[in-house]
Structures are given as structure tokens and as C-alpha cells.
Design brief:
heterodimer, A: Jelly Rolls, 19 strands, globular, B: alpha/beta, Alkaline Phosphatase, subunit A, nine-stranded mixed β-sheet, 17 strands
Chain lengths: ~1050, ~475
């Protein structure tokens, strides 16, 4: 990386301003390539489809054939075109809206070509080059090699480093960066007074050993991993991936080598004899949103999820924006569209689906993670089920031994006399013309019905076609205000109307007795479906291919409650689905056996249909069955009929056994609920047994695969190849990423770590190491860190320590106007970092200062204060119900655990730039808005914390106001106030005291915020309120929410 | 407006006092900076409008029962959708497996209105009464077929999550015209037609890769119209002012020591927060509205959180120069029971939408305000589920839908674009969603191709990467 001797950001601006620098040789990577990338590549770059004039400037040989004459700027078409004045000639063309090259840029191009147009590949795709740390001039400042790089660079810029930060400031800084929890006053005192040379190192070691280290690391990792507690998209149902978050925290704390950390998250399931832990790790890949919106297209969202994984993995591990190549070749980086889909191929054969229609909770594949207690409870469910099953089997065996015994029982039973006389008797044998009143309806087939023998000796065989059903004309009239009963024998072979007098063409007006898909029976009485109708259905089910007797009765009440159905003589439990009938059900269409007027024709057999104009009873059902059976089996029946009769008897008897079946179903349901709602689970990766073929999708559209060319999974050619023997699956990919040979992985990780400590990465765009990225500020340092990281065995804690121990990190962050003007963003590191805290730490700091912070680690997400109605306003009853706040100390857990609803991010965090976790984000914005001020002033979180901070001031701070104020200031900012600050604070306190003395009722009201207020004993409301107001100002200070 | 000015003056006074105490000479620099920040970005060319009120009908209202009159359907009612019309276009999973696609005519009658003779359904009598102010576009079409991607698309120009929404683009492109209010505000109401309808999401008014100060601020009907706006009980306005002075003074002290300009920005933000505490309640308190104005918007206007109230608030925001007011009215997703649901939704929105146009017009504000009414896609001509005498349903239809525009720069009294006899395919003057958005930007003096933000090498635009154009036929 020798080309980077002077690589600094904004180099062009500085070059223009500082001619001294211009004497340095022009660098392709620093000076030329960024301009080519910005102004030229969109038409003359890697994207073949968008390429103009067949010219590409991203490939040396092409550029030098057509546009550049090395050593001769004036003869180079490129120079001629960028200098042209004719709008038709000049590059970039005005229509591209790209700004023309500045004079300084043109001059750089001229020098570069004159100097031979030395070409270099993109730095980030070449392996890191480890150089000896340089030897700066200034003695005594450097602590470790990091400082040698930083100081040498400062010296070359004519700058000196800042003095070391005050000890309190440094302590607070390193606490936020390593554990995210500010130091306590005792820890501050101990450190300030500890003069031992290794005092600071001890602090760093203590923090790296803290279990809160893993939490601080997880805050950043969760952003990239797009971790959330809901599925996103419009339903945004809840999911629960907290076991994965716990894995992340645990694993960081155990300091798992980063290469292993990568492998387990991308492909832990493919490790030999993968453990639960390793499978949990793959939840990383499953954190993508998942669509449950009814009517979505499976393949569309299957593709979206895989694209999301490519984008996430390439951004988090490789610092690449591969997503750009989804629809076309990448405009700037050497990633073709085909290569995008090859990379996509690594994720294309996994078992998770694209679309889970209206499904709540986690979706498969997933693993259940019961604790010991959960396991006991699960065993109890299993035992209960087993007992019921045993009972059921016993009774089933006893129920109907054989035909002879059954026949005896039928014969022995004295059938009760049926008192009611049917209004219409349809024996279903012989010629139908025998039935009085029957008329063949228009268009009906003239064919005679098909007769069978059936259980009773004669039956009507229904094929499911209209012509097989039998119309009986106006032989029976249903009236919603009068009782009726329908008795029939049926052997179904599918769903349909057993009997109906119903007009399909007129909102289904009329009545039918309907056999559903699951064998349940329903009686419909309809004026207009579904708004004005009755539907009552049974729990008992008919079995396809088995005869049964059915009796449906209706009491004339006009209500669903007036419907009863007996199956095999047993009364069925009814399920009312519709109960809105208010008008007539009379219809002109004929009564029909085996269908409605034009639809829902039954397949199966029907025998002996009786219609009554009275409401029959259970006794009548028994009498109807026994009478029919006695008649039918008075003589020897053939074997088929015997078998059918026995099957009927078994089915009827089995209804008695339903209580065991119900018990089993109930236990199953309870267990499923328990597993779904109580036992934690985590969604994981699982490979399909047979790989799916991968194709390029034209324009990135799911329904436009280029099936002429199946693609092998693979990595972009601009990067080192996968080893020849590596499997072409996720495991192969994971190992390729987690390799010291990969030029990006270690650099990207170290850059992100650097950004955590210094606010900016060495490469400013931590999310993008591609050609469009601003060149690194300290390229040699970045490479040194990357190689050191690999050499350390990918030891994250060691790298933390190295950076935290550097003198560069330990500088004071104060800035002079001169330095601010020279280096506004502190890219040269002549001072320490000063940045607003991340959203989570702003809240955690306030809770810690107030003493409210609960330091419990891990577990499901929690729901702290959130303004009421926030979910409902957007989602209403459509998905998850209202936000229900936690109670007790869960209200004050670290913000890392705050519930993440993707479509309505928690405002306490979102206002301070926490992402919505819908997609991978490896860099947060830093804004400064009035909504942030309002939140710190008025959010219950901070008003309650202020009161508790006030209490600490009064209880721990002694009796003097000055000492109390000092204590509070220290709790919030980690340092003691200066004299001028003390003056402002104490005079403020005086005024607040006066204000509340004048209005004690305001004081009382001010002390009632937050869940803790209820248990508090308030003996001095006015002073406490005044101190609370003061504490609130402390929590609002810029310094309080800033890492200095 | 007087209350606003008083609050502003008061703030400035306090502000100067604070700075006088803490900053001394730095005060001049800070004020200079603030003045510089107040110079708003310029439009690309002479604008016709300064602001937008977007009445978004979430869930997708049926064009067949509102603006796209199809008399042929009377004859074709209950016949099968011809394959030649559908042409194998994709359907949602909700009707893709339907064995039959029966055409259904609108249950509601249409008539022509105004001098322009615009066809409007009987469900929208008030809208019909302002037909001559409207530019009805019957030929809008979109790329997406399900709600989330489609709403995201019409609002951001991309079906993918994470792009800035139109309001953020406009705020970014035109800057703020009122220092006391956010330049992009959002109002949400729930329909009575289908109560458990499609939800909305915060990101719909997000700023994507634009700085987050351009994101929409949702005004709620709750006690705090803006999150955390109100001082907590027990903290009076005077006490708050005192606390802010102290915070600012201490922040100034710190700035003098550490020199980080971010601290000065924070002081400004606290002042803006305080101004919002005065200006937002002034905005949402409608007690100064006369009876005849309330009556114009209809009875719902008296209920906070309704569409009618939000329309009135939108007008008040227009008066205060809020750049982009985004309303959402939920409840338009009528897969079944459409006639009933649709009647209720129209009752929710018809009078107030028309009143907003009338009210803006009578105040001279319609000349430089664009009002947009529409959903994320249309609905199918064939019924989803059973058709009965009283009811039917319609599935999602991306290939054509109706939107109306009114006000600054838009041609009034026209109906633009034609669909076939089935309201299935567009036969004349198609308007892609991105063309529609380019047109709205054009009215604001913004070139949709130049209003862009480089992000990861891509020039991100509201109108996407493919070529799109303002529709000249819609422009006055």
C-alpha cells in the first residue's frame, strides 16, 4: 500500500489549498480513481448494459487503448473530452447532471498521464500490506504501533497531538466504548487516585472482563444483523429471536475468535455434528423481515429474503454494496449481475420460505429451546395425552367386537316407536316418478338416477354432477318460522349438499344440509348469504366411505340456537358461524337431494330421506336408526352390507369416545400454545436436501429468471477465489469470508471497531469499501490493524485493548478554532473523539446516573415507557394489539433489550438515530434535532430518572447544596463542575426552590412521574421537586449525552 | 398568527439573554450562522406551488365506484373477464386460484358534474361539487400488487424499504419556510369502512438517506400532538424556560472549553423545541375557527383524529407554510363487502376533501398549494368472492387507478387518461406513479432528475433510475 503515503480524505481540497502537497506524485487510487468512479463509471464502467461507446475506464487495457496515451496528456482523448467546451463533446455530458471536473482535478489528470498513467487496482481488493510502523520524530508520546502511524502522519501535516484527556474524561470514554455503562463515583475516585503506571491498563482489563462488554458489542452487531422482535411488512406480527441475541452477548463475552464467529452465524448448521449453540448462531441469517401479508406471492418474497441476505452479508462482513448488482452490473465495483446471483446462490437452497401467510410468531425451520422447567411442563402434557390415548384405545377395542354381536344388540333393542309421521318420505328406490308432486326441472337430465344397495338395501348413488342429483319439485317447503327435521342416511365421498332447497343465483336463498370438507355437517337457513343467514355446524364428523345416519332439526325460532344435529344418534356440539337471519328463506327452486339449485353437488350415497314438519328429539333419532336397521337386517345381508353396518356401528360408537379425543385435542392445543408462547424458540438456517437451481433474474425480478444458464454458487472474480476443494455452499462461503486471505474481512472489522472508538472509521464509509468509498485516512494503519487482527487469532478483545491503550485514543478531545478549521472531522486524529452517544447509551447513562438501571443480562425483549396509543394509531386492531408496558425493574433494563417493533420503532431510541432494524445498517446517522431536546426534557424515562438522580443528590451528596449539586453533576457527566458551572447550578437550584415553594401543588405533581413514584415516600416534596428540576437540566446537558 | 409571533419574539429575547450571559462574542457568530441556515434552498426553476397536501387513501379505493365510470359493465355484469383483457397478468394470491372471474358493475350511479362534465360517483357528492377545480387522472398505474410494497413505492419511488419519502424530498429540496414548525408533517386517521385495515408504518414518512431532520413529524390526536411536546405535570412554562436557560448557559460554558460546534447546534435545537411547544398547540387548537368553516368540513371535524379534522389542520398548516402535509386515511381495502365499506369510507372523506379545496381557494391558498387525493393501486373489475344482489368484493389491481390533483400549477376541470371498458388496462395517456410524482415536483419548481442524493454510488431520486417525466397534460 505504498501508494498511500499521503492518502488523506478531502485530499483534493487540501491539494488545491496547499501547493506543497501537490509536489507529491499523483496517486491513482487517491486522486484519479475516485474521480473516474464518480464522473465516468456510470457510462464507462463495469455495467455492460449501461456502457456507452463501448468504452470502459475501469479496466487499464481498455482505457489505454481508447482514451489514454501514457505520458502524453495532450494526445489523450480523455483529456480532450474533459477539456472540451462544445456541449456535445465535453465529458461528463451535461445531461448526466454530473459536475464537470474542477481545474485542480484536470491538473491531476494531466500530471498523472504525463507521469506515465500508472494504474493500480482498487486498494481494498488487494491483500493488506503490513509495513513496519514508522518512527515518528517526537519522543515519548507513543504507546503502541497505532501511535507510530498516527503521530508520523500528524508530523507530516505539521500538527502535534493533543495532551492526554483528563482522567475522569478518559475513564468515562473507555467505559462507554467497552461496556456502555458509565463509571460510578467510586470507580472514578479509585482511578483518579491510582498513580500506578498500569492503573489505566487495569481499568481496560476490568472492562473487557465485564459481562457488559458483550452487551456493548451487541448494540452495534444487532444493527448490521437487522435484529428485531417483529416480522416487519404490513402485518408486522411478533417474533422472538432473543435466544440469538443472548448467543451474541455470550459469544462476545467468551471472546470467540472472529473467524469462528462468522462461520457459526453463516453456516453453524453445516458444521459436523452441529450443536444447538451453533445452530442458534445461524439466526443471524434469519433476522431478515418476513412477509405474512395475505395474497403475497411465495416466489417473490423467497427472492427478496435471499437478496436481503446477500446485501447483509456483503455489507457486514465485506463492506460491499452488492445489492447494487441485483438488477444490473454494478456501476462502480467489479461485481457483475451474474456474480450477484452466484453469491445469491449460496442462500438459494435453504428451507425457510418466502412467505408465511398470516402466520404469527416464529416460522420454521426453528429450534425449540426449553429450560428445565419447560421440559417438566412438556413432559406433563405428554403424560396427559398418553393417558387419554390409552383409554381411547381400550374403549375402541371394546366398542364393537364383530357383526354377530352387533346384530344381537340391534335385535335385542326394542326400537322406540316413532310418533312423528314424516311429511315427505323418500325411500330412494324404484322409479322417481312415484313421488307425488315431482316435476323434472328445466334442463335436467332425463336420465334415471343411479341406484345402489347401500346399507339399507337401496340407495341413490351421487357422482358429484348435477344430473346425478335428484330434484323433488315443490314437495316440501321450509319456513324459518316453523319447525322442521331432516333425517337421512349418507355415505359421503367429499363435500357438498346432502339435501337442499337453495337458490344459488339469489344469494343462496333457502335451506341446505351441507357436508363440509372435514366431514362436519352444517344446516344453512339463508335469506342472503352471508349477511342475512343462519349457519350452524357440528363438531362430529362423518367419515368418507362410511355410512352414517344424520338428523337435523330446527325449532322455528329464527335463531341458530334452534338448530340441533344428531349424527349416528348422538347429539353433536354445534358451532354457530352465522346468526343474522331476519327475512324469508322461501324460494321457488325445487327441493333437491345431492345438491343446491346449481352447485355443491355431493359425491357419495344417500338412503332413506325423511322430512318432518316437527322438531324431532334424540329419542326419535335412535328410533329412526334402530327401526331402519332392524328392517334392513331382518334377513341375512350380504357381506358387503354387513361390513358397512359394522363400520357405521363403529363410527356411531366412536362418537362416545369423543371425550377422549377431545381431551387429546385439548392437550395438543395447550401444548402447542405453550410451545409457541412460553417455550423460547429461535429461527435457524437449514439447507434443503436437494439444492435449488440458481438463475440470473432479469432486472432483478423474481418472475424473470434466465433459465438458459444455471449458475453455480460463487464469489466475485475481483476477489480471491474460493479454494478448489471448498464446498460451494454456505459453509464454503463462510470459510472464504473468515479467511486471512480475504482482503476485506479483517479490514472491515477493524475499521468498524475503530469507528466505535473514534467516531469515524479510517475508511469513513464503514458500510462501503468499494471504489466509491472515500480513501482511508490512514491506509497503512488500517492494514497493520487488519494483519495484527488475523495474526492474533482474530482476537477481538486483544484488538480492543490495543486501541484503548493507544495514546491516540487517550488524547483530550478539546479542539481549538484553528484545528477545527484545519480538520473539522478529526480525520488526522490530532485530538481525542467527541461524539454524541448512541441512542441506547443515552438512556442507559441516565438510568445509571439515577441508580435505576437494571443490569440483568439477556432474555426476551422488554417494554419500557412508550407514549400511549403509538402502536394503535398505525396498526389498530390489525396486528398486535396495544403496547403493554412491563412492570418492575424490567422498565429500567438496558436499552439493548427494548422491544423492537419494526413498523413503529420505539421513539425513545428512534429519535436518537437508532435504525428501524428493517434492513442491515452498519452505520447510524448522527443528527441533532428539536425532537431530541423534547424527548430528554419530557419523556417519562428522563423525568423519572431526574427524580431519582435528585434523591441521590440529597441522600448521598451530604447536606450542603453545593456538595449535592456537585454529586449530581458528577453522576451525569463523570466529572466535577468548574466554579462557573457551580455558580450556574446552585443559582438555578435556588430559583427552582423558590418556584416550588410558591407552588407546592406543582411540586407534588412533578414528583408523580414513572412507575416508581407509587412506592416512594416523599417527606420533602418542595426540595425534591427543585432538585428534580435541576437533575433534569443535568440529564439534558450536551456533555451528559456525549462521549468526550 | 399573532400568538406565533409573540412566542417567537419571546424566544429570541431569551435566546439573546442566554447568549449574553454565556457566550459573549460568540453570539454574533451563532446568529450569523442561524441567519445563513434560514436561507432556504432554491427551487430549480420558477415554482407554481410552494407546498403540498397529500390526502393519501390507504388500502386502495376502488376506481370503479369513484371516478372511472364504466357503463359497458351494465351489459357485461356477471359475465366472465375475457382472457384477452387479462392477458395473463399476475393476480394476488387471494384471487389467483378463483375458478371464475365474474365482472361486476358498480352498485353506485355516476353522473357528470360541473362545466367540465367530470364523471363522479354518487358516493362523492361534495367532491363532485368541486369537480371544476379538480384534475382527475384515471390512468395512474403502479408496479406493485400488495399494500406494503405499493405504498412504499408511491411514497418513495422504490418498492424497497429505506428510501426517502416524497415529503422528505420536498423538505430537502425546498427547505423550511417556518422556523417554528417542522417542514414535513403527517396526520393519520382511521376509516369507518373497514376498521381492522392495513396498518401504516413510521418509515413511510422517513427520510431514508437524507438527513433525518427532513423526516415527517407525525401529529397525533393524543394529548401531546408531537411526541414529548408537553412539559410534564408540575413543570410550568416559566420553570421550563428557566431550565432551558440554564441548560443553554451550561452548554455554552462547555463550548467555551471544548470548542465543539455541535454544542452550538444543540443550543439551537433546544430553542426550536421551545418554539414548537408554543407553535404546535397554536396550530392544533381550532377554537378560533368560525362555525361556518367547521360546518364546511362536516360534523366529524369536531372530533380529533378524524379525516375531517386532519383536513382542517392541513389547511392551518398550509397557512403556516408547512411544506408538505401528508394525510393518511386507512380502511380502503375492500376485498369483500365493498359497497358497504366503500359508502362509509366515502362518507368519512368526501365532504372534508372538497371542503379543503374550497377553503384553500377562498383564502387564495389553492394557487400555491397542490392537493393530491388517491391510494396505492386500484381494484379489480371482477369480484373477489361471491357476488350477490347486495354485495361483492374487489381484489388489488395495479394496472390502473384514479387520483385527483388540485391547485398550484395543475390544470383544473379536466379528466385525464382513459381505461378500457373493463377499467383493466389503460388505453390512453398512462401515468406511471413516478410520472405523477415527477409532475408534483415540477409544480414545486423541482426537476425530479436533479433532486437527487448520491448514496453508495447511486444518484437516489424520488422517481427512481428509469426515465420518467412530468406529465405536461396535467399542467396548467
Amino acid at each position: 500500500m505504498s501508494m498511500w503515503r499521503r492518502g488523506i480524505p478531502g485530499a483534493l481540497v487540501l491539494l488545491a489549498a496547499l501547493p506543497a502537497v501537490a509536489e507529491e506524485a499523483v496517486s491513482f487510487g487517491r486522486d484519479i480513481q475516485p474521480v473516474l468512479s464518480d464522473r465516468c463509471y456510470s457510462c464507462h464502467g463495469p455495467d455492460a448494459a449501461a456502457r456507452k461507446a463501448d468504452l470502459r475506464l475501469d479496466v487499464e487495457s481498455d482505457a489505454k487503448t481508447a482514451a489514454i496515451v501514457s505520458g502524453n496528456p495532450d494526445a489523450s482523448p480523455l483529456m480532450q473530452r474533459i477539456l472540451a467546451t462544445d456541449p456535445g463533446e465535453v465529458m461528463p455530458p451535461p445531461a448526466s447532471h454530473k459536475p464537470p471536473l474542477s481545474a485542480a482535478e484536470v491538473e491531476l489528470f494531466r500530471q498523472w498521464i504525463a507521469g506515465g498513467a500508472v494504474w493500480e487496482g482498487h486498494w481494498a481488493f488487494a491483500p493488506p500490506e503490513r509495513v513496519e510502523p514508522p518512527r515518528p520524530v517526537m519522543p515519548g508520546w507513543t504507546h503502541n504501533p497505532i501511535d507510530q502511524f498516527v503521530l508520523t502522519r500528524l508530523e507530516s501535516e505539521g500538527l502535534a497531538p493533543s495532551p492526554a484527556a483528563p482522567r475522569e474524561t478518559l475513564l468515562r470514554r473507555v467505559h462507554f466504548d467497552i461496556t456502555g455503562i458509565p463509571p460510578t463515583p467510586a470507580e472514578i475516585d479509585a482511578f483518579v487516585l491510582d498513580n500506578a503506571p498500569e492503573a489505566y491498563e487495569r481499568v481496560v482489563d476490568r472492562l473487557l472482563d465485564s459481562p457488559h462488554y458483550g452487551e456493548r458489542m451487541a448494540i452495534d452487531w444487532l444493527d448490521g444483523a437487522r435484529f428485531a422482535d417483529t416480522n416487519g411488512f404490513q402485518n408486522d406480527f411478533a417474533r422472538d429471536m432473543h435466544p440469538w441475541r443472548d448467543w451474541v452477548i455470550r459469544t462476545f463475552n467468551a471472546n470467540m475468535p472472529y473467524d469462528q464467529f462468522i462461520i457459526e452465524q453463516l453456516a453453524g448448521d453445516l458444521l459436523p455434528a452441529a450443536t444447538d449453540e451453533q445452530r442458534i448462531a445461524t439466526g443471524f441469517c434469519r433476522n431478515n423481515r418476513s412477509n405474512t401479508e395475505g395474497g403475497s406471492v411465495e416466489e417473490e418474497w423467497y427472492v427478496e429474503n435471499r437478496v436481503d441476505r446477500v446485501e447483509t452479508v456483503s455489507a457486514v462482513f465485506l463492506g460491499l454494496t452488492m445489492g447494487c448488482a441485483r438488477c444490473h452490473d454494478h456501476k462502480y465495483d467489479p461485481v457483475s449481475q451474474e456474480e450477484f446471483y452466484q453469491f445469491y446462490g449460496f442462500f438459494n437452497s435453504t428451507a425457510d420460505r418466502g412467505f408465511y401467510e398470516e402466520q404469527r410468531g416464529n416460522s420454521g425451520p426453528m429450534i425449540s429451546l426449553p429450560t428445565f422447567e419447560h421440559q417438566l411442563e412438556l413432559a406433563r402434557f405428554d403424560k396427559e395425552r398418553q393417558d387419554a390415548e390409552t383409554k381411547l384405545r381400550e374403549e375402541e377395542a371394546n366398542a364393537v367386537p364383530d357383526f354377530a354381536a352387533w346384530r344381537e344388540r340391534v335385535a335385542a333393542a326394542t326400537p322406540a316407536e316413532l310418533e312423528a309421521q314424516p311429511a315427505l318420505r323418500v325411500p330412494l328406490r324404484g322409479r322417481l316418478t312415484a313421488y307425488a308432486g315431482r316435476e323434472r326441472s328445466e334442463g335436467e337430465s332425463a336420465a334415471e338416477p343411479v341406484w345402489g344397495t347401500g346399507l339399507l338395501g337401496s340407495s341413490l348413488v351421487l357422482s358429484g354432477a348435477q344430473e346425478a342429483s335428484v330434484s323433488l319439485g315443490d314437495t316440501f317447503t321450509f319456513d324459518a318460522s316453523k319447525p322442521f327435521s331432516i333425517s337421512a342416511w349418507v355415505k359421503p365421498a367429499g363435500a357438498g349438499a346432502l339435501l337442499g332447497r337453495m337458490d344459488d343465483g339469489n344469494a343462496a336463498r333457502g335451506v341446505d344440509l351441507f357436508i363440509g370438507e372435514t366431514g362436519d355437517l352444517a344446516l344453512h337457513l339463508v335469506h342472503a348469504w352471508p349477511g342475512n343467514a343462519i349457519k350452524a355446524a357440528t363438531d362430529k364428523r362423518l367419515e368418507n366411505g362410511v355410512w352414517s345416519h344424520v338428523l337435523a332439526t330446527y325449532d322455528g325460532s329464527g335463531k341458530a340456537a334452534g338448530v340441533k344435529i344428531y349424527v349416528g344418534g348422538r347429539r353433536a356440539d354445534m358451532r354457530v358461524e352465522t346468526d343474522t337471519l331476519t327475512d324469508t328463506i322461501a324460494t321457488e327452486v325445487p327441493l333437491r337431494i345431492g345438491g343446491r339449485s346449481a352447485s355443491n353437488h355431493l359425491k357419495g350415497e344417500v338412503a332413506e330421506v325423511l322430512l318432518f314438519d316437527t322438531e324431532l328429539s334424540r329419542g326419535d333419532a335412535t328410533a329412526l336408526i334402530d327401526g331402519a336397521l332392524a328392517r334392513a337386517f331382518s334377513s341375512e345381508a350380504d357381506e358387503t352390507r354387513q361390513a358397512e353396518a359394522l363400520a357405521f356401528a363403529k363410527l356411531a360408537a366412536s362418537y362416545e369416545l369423543n371425550r377422549y379425543r377431545r381431551k387429546i385435542e385439548q392437550v395438543d392445543r395447550e401444548k402447542a400454545d405453550y410451545v409457541a408462547n412460553v417455550v423460547p424458540s429461535v429461527m435457524v438456517m437449514e439447507e434443503l436436501p436437494e439444492p435449488k437451481p440458481t438463475y440470473l433474474l432479469n432486472r432483478g425480478a423474481y418472475d424473470q429468471p434466465d433459465t438458459t444458464k444455471p449458475l453455480e454458487p460463487g464469489v466475485p472474480k475481483a476477489l480471491p477465489p474460493m479454494p478448489a476443494d471448498a464446498p460451494r455452499n454456505r459453509m464454503g462461503l463462510a470459510r472464504w469470508i473468515a479467511s486471512g486471505e480475504n482482503p476485506l474481512t479483517a479490514r472491515v472489522a477493524m475499521n468498524r471497531l475503530w469507528a466505535k472508538f473514534f467516531g469515524n472509521g479510517i475508511v469513513k464509509s464503514v458500510e462501503n469499501f468499494g471504489v466509491q468509498a472515500e480513501p482511508p485516512s490512514h491506509p497503512e494503519l488500517l492494514d497493520w490493524l487488519a494483519t495484527e487482527f488475523v495474526a492474533s487469532g482474530w482476537d477481538l478483545k486483544a484488538m480492543h485493548k490495543l486501541i484503548a491503550m493507544s495514546a491516540a485514543y487517550r488524547q483530550d478531545s478539546r479542539v481549538t478554532p484553528g484545528l477545527l478549521e484545519r480538520d473539522p472531522h478529526n480525520r488526522l486524529l490530532a485530538r481525542g473523539p467527541r461524539f454524541r452517544l448512541p441512542a441506547e447509551l443515552i438512556r442507559d447513562n441516565a438510568l445509571a446516573a439515577s441508580g435505576l438501571l437494571s443490569t440483568t443480562i439477556g432474555g426476551p425483549s422488554v417494554r419500557p415507557y412508550q407514549p400511549e396509543g403509538l402502536w394503535d394509531e398505525l396498526a389498530g386492531g390489525a396486528n398486535q394489539g396495544p403496547y403493554i408496558m412491563n412492570t418492575g425493574s424490567d422498565v429500567h433494563r438496558r436499552s439493548l433489550y427494548t422491544y423492537r417493533k419494526r413498523t413503529v420503532p420505539h421513539p425513545t431510541l428512534a429519535i436518537f438515530n437508532a435504525p428501524s432494524f428493517e434492513m442491515c445498517e452498519v452505520k447510524r446517522m448522527q443528527t441533532n434535532t428539536p425532537l431530541q431536546s423534547l424527548a430528554l426534557l419530557n419523556d417519562t424515562t428522563y423525568v423519572e430518572a431526574a427524580r431519582h438522580l435528585a434523591r441521590r443528590m440529597m441522600v448521598e451528596g451530604g447536606s450542603e447544596p453545593a456538595a449535592r449539586v456537585e454529586h449530581g453533576f458528577r453522576l451525569a457527566t463523570g466529572r466535577k463542575p468548574g466554579p462557573r458551572e457551580m455558580e450556574l447550578l446552585t443559582s438555578g437550584l435556588e430559583r427552582y426552590l423558590q418556584a416550588y415553594e410558591a407552588a407546592p401543588e406543582e411540586a407534588a405533581a412533578f414528583l408523580k412521574h414513572g412507575v416508581t413514584a407509587e412506592q416512594e415516600v416523599i417527606d420533602q416534596p418542595v426540595p425534591l421537586a427543585a432538585y428534580t428540576a435541576l437533575a433534569s437540566t443535568l440529564l439534558n446537558l450536551d456533555e451528559t449525552i456525549t462521549k468526550e | 398568527m399573532d400568538t406565533l409571533r409573540i412566542a417567537q419574539d419571546m424566544n429570541r429575547r431569551h435566546f439573546l439573554q442566554t447568549l449574553g450571559v454565556g457566550l459573549g462574542g460568540a453570539a454574533v457568530g451563532l446568529l450569523g450562522r442561524q441567519a445563513a441556515a434560514a436561507t432556504v434552498p432554491r427551487p430549480h426553476f420558477e415554482p407554481r406551488a410552494k407546498r403540498v397536501i397529500y390526502l393519501f387513501q390507504s388500502g386502495a379505493p376502488s376506481q370503479l365506484e369513484s371516478f372511472d365510470y364504466k357503463p359497458e359493465l351494465t351489459k357485461l355484469h356477471m359475465t366472465e373477464l375475457p382472457d384477452s383483457v387479462r392477458m395473463g397478468q399476475r393476480l394476488t394470491g387471494m384471487t389467483a386460484n378463483q375458478s371464475t372471474f365474474p365482472l361486476v358493475q358498480s352498485k353506485f350511479k355516476f353522473a357528470q358534474h360541473g362545466q367540465s362534465g367530470a364523471w363522479v360517483s354518487e358516493l362523492l357528492p361534495h367532491t363532485a361539487s368541486v369537480a371544476d377545480d379538480l384534475c382527475i387522472v384515471r390512468s395512474v398505474h403502479t408496479d406493485a400488487i400488495n399494500h406494503d410494497p405499493a405504498i412504499t413505492f408511491i411514497q418513495t419511488g422504490s418498492q424497497l424499504t429505506g428510501r426517502p419519502s416524497m415529503g422528505a424530498w420536498v423538505a430537502y429540496g425546498l427547505g423550511s419556510a417556518n422556523e417554528d414548525l417542522p417542514s414535513f408533517m403527517v396526520l393519520v386517521s382511521r376509516g369507518t369502512g373497514r376498521t381492522a385495515d392495513q396498518p401504516l408504518y413510521d418509515r413511510l414518512w422517513g427520510s431514508g438517506m437524507l438527513p433525518s431532520r427532513y423526516q415527517g413529524v407525525k401529529l397525533r390526536s393524543a394529548e401531546d400532538p408531537v411526541l414529548y411536546l408537553g412539559n410534564p405535570a408540575g413543570c410550568t412554562t416559566n420553570l421550563r424556560r428557566d431550565m432551558l436557560d440554564q441548560i443553554n448557559a451550561l452548554n455554552s460554558e462547555r463550548h467555551a472549553v471544548v470548542g465543539d460546534p455541535e454544542i452550538l447546534t444543540r443550543i439551537e435545537q433546544y430553542e426550536m423545541a421551545f418554539r414548537m411547544q408554543a407553535s404546535v398547540p397554536g396550530l392544533t387548537d381550532i377554537s378560533d375557527e368560525p362555525e361556518h368553516i367547521l360546518d364546511l368540513y362536516g360534523p366529524d371535524v369536531r372530533k380529533p383524529g378524524t379525516f375531517a379534522r386532519n383536513c382542517l389542520l392541513a389547511r392551518r398548516m398550509a397557512e403556516r407554510d408547512v411544506r408538505f402535509v401528508q394525510l393518511y386515511h386507512m380502511g380502503w381495502d375492500h376485498h369483500d363487502n365493498l359497497p358497504d365499506h366503500m359508502s362509509k369510507q366515502c362518507r368519512d372523506t368526501d365532504q372534508a376533501s372538497a371542503a379543503l379545496v374550497t377553503d384553500l381557494k377562498q383564502r387564495g391558498l389553492l394557487d400555491d398549494t397542490i392537493v393530491v387525493w388517491g391510494g396505492e393501486f386500484g381494484r379489480t373489475v371482477y369480484s373477489q368472492g361471491q357476488v350477490t344482489e347486495v354485495t361483492y368484493g374487489r381484489d388489488h389491481h395495479p394496472r390502473c387507478f384514479s387520483v385527483w390533483l388540485a391547485g398550484g400549477g395543475v390544470k383544473p376541470g379536466i379528466t385525464y387518461g382513459t381505461t378500457d371498458d373493463f377499467s383493466y388496462n389503460i388505453v390512453e395517456n398512462p401515468v406511471h406513479v413516478n410520472d405523477l410524482n415527477a409532475t408534483i415536483l415540477h409544480c414545486l419548481g423541482l426537476d425530479h432528475e436533479r433532486l437527487s442524493m448520491p448514496y453508495q454510488g447511486l444518484d437516489v431520486r424520488l422517481t427512481g433510475v428509469d426515465p420518467h417525466h412530468p406529465v405536461t397534460g396535467l399542467l396548467a
